[in-house]
Amino acid sequence: DTAPMDWGAGLEQLNKDASIDDDDDDNNNKPTAVPEKSKSSSKREKKASKRSAEEDIQLKEQARLAGEAAPETKDDFEKLVLTSGNSSFVWIKYMAWFMSQGAPQLAREVAERALETIHYRQDKERMNLWMA
After folding, report:
1. Biggest CA-to-CA distance, the chain
2. Residue 118 — left, alpha, or beta (φ > 0 → left; ψ -120 to 50 → alpha)?
3. What is the model's pTM?
């Protein structure tokens, strides 16, 4: 159907071949293309929404790094526990989060894990955990 490309052909020949291909497409009754204005506006909208989502993520990450944001998910608490494993405050918050989610068994497991993780010489931290 298509002839091999002639590398020696000039731009006029290539443009002529392209216009022939365009004419063939029109004869095949293919659906018409969406006007450029609606394409560009939807592209702009997608780009703007993507940019705002990235900005939101960046703000949340900065707040977490600064210590201003409270953890919201199990993964957030796991990251916090890894960085502050000897802090009873962090473990108690993690347990409270599970209780607010209606999962007391998981809260108990977190408490047991906390007692194993907190250094045995930090009696005050371990006592805080026992009291909770």
Report:
1. 86
2. beta
3. 0.48
The two three-digit tokens of residue 88, written as one number? 């009873």
| φ/ψ (deg, to 5) at 90 | -65, -45
Sequence-distant (≥ 6) Cβ neighbours of residue 6 within 8 angstroms: 13
Contact between 115 and 126 (Cβ < 8 Å): yes
Cα 103 to Cα 105: distance, rounded to the nearest angstrom? 6
**Residue for token pair 């707040």:** 63
What radius of gyration do the chain's Cα atoms show? Answer: 31
Position 102, amino acid:
G
**Mean pLDDT over each residue of the chain, to the nearest integer:** 75
